[in-house]
Amino acid sequence: MDIHAMVAKISGELSDKAYEVSDSLARIGSEEVLQAMIVLLKNPNPESRYLAARTMAHMTNNAAGLAPLMDAIQDKENSSQQGELLAELEGFDVSDYYVELFKYYLFGGFKVSMIAKDLLDHKDFDITARVIKKATKHWNHYTNNVKHDELFTLKKREVEEILADLQAFVSDES
Questions:
Q1: What is the pTM of this model?
Q2: How many CB atoms lie within 10 A of CB 118?
Q3: How many CB atoms lie within 10 A of CB 75?
Q4: Which fold does the domain 1-92 belong to in CATH?
Q5: Interval 117-163: pLDDT, tens
Q6: Which of 41, 55, 77, 113 allows an S-S link to 108, with CB 3.0 to 4.6 Å?
Q7: 128/167 Cα distance (integer angstroms)
């Protein structure tokens, strides 16, 4: 299979076979494919950027693509598709990214916040006292910068429960 020709099929103008090509590239899963997808995360076409994230998420050996995908999620150019890109983190080991996902949960729009919360609820993380301290810092920043309405009260209850559970987990580990 000509990987370059396949990558070209998900770069720019997409055909109705783009998802099939993405699946094929993910099955190949080579370092060459991974590097091509990392480059494709910066493609001018938002659909191509999404397919790059999707392809990497379906690859077995995708660890080197996680940091570039996190950069793409944070890129202002991708703000309209932040949720779709964030959802592709499901296919990665995000165990070291609790604080980043917690920030998306707090500060993201509705879709981004819900996707981040789902990842926080269902993925495994390396939780340490430092992670809890950073998460608490972001929570304090959030509480000082948002309107204290009914929605805030609901989120406050949920976050305080999350932080208490994390603290209990770390205390049990010691």
A1: 0.93
A2: 15
A3: 14
A4: Leucine-rich Repeat Variant (1.25.10)
A5: 999 999 999 999 999 999 999 999 999 999 999 999 999 999 999 99
A6: 113
A7: 9
